[in-house]
Amino acid sequence: MMKLTIIGNGYTANFLSKDALKKGFQVSIITRNILKPKKNIHYFNFDDEINIKKKLQEENLISTVPPSQNGDDPVIQKYRNAISLNNKKIIYFSATSVYGGSIVYEDTKVNPQNIRGKNRLKAETEWLNTNKQSSIFRISGIYGPGRHPMIKYLNGNNDVIVKDGHVSNRINVEDLSAIVIKYLIEDYKFKYLNISEENKIENFEAIKYVTEKLNLVTPNAISYKSKKISETMRSFYEVDREVRSKIINNEFKYKFKNNDYKETLLKLTKKLL
What is the pTM of this model? Predict the structure, then answer.
């Protein structure tokens, strides 16, 4: 039985852990907050050094933990030595904010344009310096059941940020989980992997499509420069980036289950009505 330790217990980690169980993995989750534990998953507190060090040395690892405000990776800062001894597969969940603008691939030179991207790049470097076998998964905006923009819309807020020419780089959590498990099970080894749906569309256009199909009120377009928009949210729109992969459809041979954002968003919305 393959063993998998996931560090972090958020939306993606929960989805991934359930999928891994179905594929026959023995799954452990390391977290600071053990809330609503799932059946057949082993939970460990992040500060339980005695039990955790052994897992970090001997099992397949996935870290979903973001860097701290100064860019340091909290997992590496605490467990650097244990992780350095691991010879299994190690995946660090990074973000596409490490790139600059335009169309980007795995071999595109990194050029972060904001503090989020700079911190992610620093954390990537820490993982690679700690264990050269680490694989960096640069992941677009994750969405799926219980996590998508139509939830806010249905709760009464139909304002949608717009910027001409700005496409929405997204990945459905179902595809992300399937890609990760395929990578763990099969004989692959990539230093960097971009994970993003291939068909791009502006977020406003996707939401407008859903509302038209369901005869709902048309969303209200708000410029990303509006004073109503927070600086953090605005930063997601300041860089026009289209994320692509040279690996997913070639060496990796993965076929997306959800490759049309507007149609997937429509299906997710119908389940809420």
Answer: 0.96
